[in-house]
Amino acid sequence: RISKLHATDLLPKNQNGWQNTRDFLQQVVEILYDYIKEENERTSKILDFHQPEEMHELIDLTIPEKPMTLQELLDSCQQVLKYSVRTGHPRFFNQISCGLDLVSMAGEWLTATANTNMFTYEISPVFILMEKEVIRRMIDLIGWGPDQGDAIFTPGGAIANMYAVNAARHQHYPRVKPLGMSSVPTLCIFTSEDSHYSIKGAAAVLGIGTDCCFNIPTDNIGRMIPEALEQKIVQCKREGLQPFFVCATAGTTVYGAFDPLLKIADICERHKMWFHVDAAWGGGLLLSPEHRYKLAGIERANSVTWNPHKLMGALLQCSACFIRHDGLLFQTNQMSADYLFQQDKPYDVSYDTGDKAMQCGRHNDVFKLWLMWRSKGMEGYRRQINNQMHLAAYFTERIKTIEGYEVIIEKPEYLNICFWYVPPSIRHLDEKEKYARLEKIAPKIKAKMMERGTTMVGYQPDGQKPNFFRMIISNQATTQADLDFLIDEIVEIGKD
Ligand code: ABU
User: Fold this and answer.
1) Phi, psi at residue 471, to the nearest 5°?
2) In the chain, where does the domain assigned CATH 3.90.1150.170 lie?
3) Rounded to whole angstroms, how far apart are CA atoms 411 and 86?
4) Contact between residue 86 and residue 47 where contact means Cβ atoms under 8 Å apart
5) For the chain, what is the radius of gyration of the CA atoms?
6) Tell me: the pLDDT tens digits for 11-41?
7) Class assignment of domain 117-363?
8) N or C, which terminus of the chain has less Cβ within 10 Å?
9) What ipTM describes this predicted complex?
10) Which residue, among 390, 386, 419, has the nearest Cα to 480 in the 3D structure?
């Protein structure tokens, strides 16, 4: 029946179209059910990889002149999912954000249906209050006082980091907002060489300049060296620059390292600088009483980035920037648009969050987090995160016992395990030759893995280190057997 119908046969165009609407949505949901079921079956493939030109042939992506039928739309939904990567598959280890939490997904469905904007209480009364509640809970976990802290949910951690740099600059140099950078001396900021590239990106966007974003060296497990930081700050001051911002990372992207927050906090205090912690990845550990010590000192931060779409497993996107000084987000970003933020509304307008944000329209990212968090409670998260830490330790120890595997960091601090796989044919080579050949091994194994569609794991080079795998264990569906599968698969593919 649906094959002859069009969108105009549905609500709201067709006021008698409730049955059609229900049938259509029911069928969409059936397609999603099938996808979810299949994604959770270990025998199903993670992806059906094709080169872009081939993919163009396989799937029609054109926008037509004439309306398509509902059946054609359903077929499109099916096709799109057929060629999508199953990021919730228990053997998907490719990204820091992976897994599909079904309660969070249900939250995202509701959010899409409610389809509202997070800039005013007027149009999002419940979600605004919910956001305040969740932000408060996260601030308590960071460890700020009851009267401290505010936050804004942002489109990803890179933007959250940019909010932090901007707030810091406004706190130190408020004249930049009206007058621009010509009103201040040359500013500079600091972050570790293993930190996320978005700090440099923020320097570029905010007019500080990438050359004035200094990368501080890290130790042998990827943590910023505090003495090197202080030396660089002193040198910059001597050269006439104005250091004002330090980013410490809690959970670096490649090695999962935690910078020494307490020592960095001391340096920032001594030099009267803003102390930011990029805990986009590591922030979730605050939910584990056993592992939160790795973030000791975060309570001294002036700002924190924390992405619940990473370790906490909220659906993409769910990121937030926390600022300890309440009111600063408003002061930094407020533009007072009269058409949205009228001051004579019939409620307390401090509940209108829009003027805290750089963006105007803002997606509701809190509902899926709130619903999921309620489904687990604090206890559920503690179990989930401790289990992932246990799996990471298992994986690390296991590969150390298998010929050909070489770990890069003997005892990783977190859920990133970086390693080489050295195939039998090059094991006998001297170190120099072996490392030269290794550059091509991880990409080759990964390409084969994608062709097989059985599992996925990322790789990258780092400085002098040739391409190595970066295993991420943040998918709550993953078990020990899935890790064993990956280990065997790499050995199997790596055979010459
Ligand atoms: N900050 C995004 C990290 C993406 C990834 O490494 O999976």
Assistant:
1) -85, 135
2) 373-493
3) 30
4) yes
5) 25
6) 999 999 999 999 999 999 999 999 999 999 9
7) alpha beta
8) C
9) 0.94
10) 390
CA distance 305 to 284: 11
Location of structure tokens 């004002």: 244
Q: Where are the beta strands (DSSP E) in 225-366?
A: 242-249, 274-278, 303-306, 319-323
Q: What angle do CA 271, 356, 278 make, to 5 degrees?
A: 45
Q: Which atom of ligand 1 is nearest to the CA of 281?
A: 1
**Closest among 290, 259, 255, 289 to 276, alpha carbons compared:** 259
Atom of ligand 1 nearest to the CA of 157: 1
Q: Is 96 in the pocket of ligand 1 (CB under 6 A)?
A: yes
State the closest ligand 1 atom to the C-alpha of 198, by its place in the atom list counted from 1.
Answer: 1
Cα–Cα distance, 209 to 190 (Å, whole number)? 12
Q: Specify the CATH class of 373-493 in words.
A: alpha beta
Find tokens 């939490």 and name the residue: 101
Give the predicted TM-score (pTM) of the model.
Answer: 0.98
Mean pLDDT over 416-433 rounds to 95
What is the rounded CA–CA span in Å between residue 284 and residue 381? 9
Strand boundaries in 226-331, DSSP class E: 242-249, 274-278, 303-306, 319-323
Q: Is residue 146 over pLDDT 90?
A: yes
Please list the helix, strand and coil fractions of the chain in percent, rounded to the nearest 5, in that order: 45, 15, 40
Structure tokens at 433: 């030759």
The token duo for 179 is: 């007058």
The predicted-structure confidence for 102-142, as pLDDT tens digits, reads as follows 999 999 999 999 999 999 999 999 999 999 999 999 999 99
- Ligand 1 center to residue 253 CA distance, Å? 6
Task: Indicate where the chain has its CATH 3.40.640.10 domain(s).
Answer: 117-363
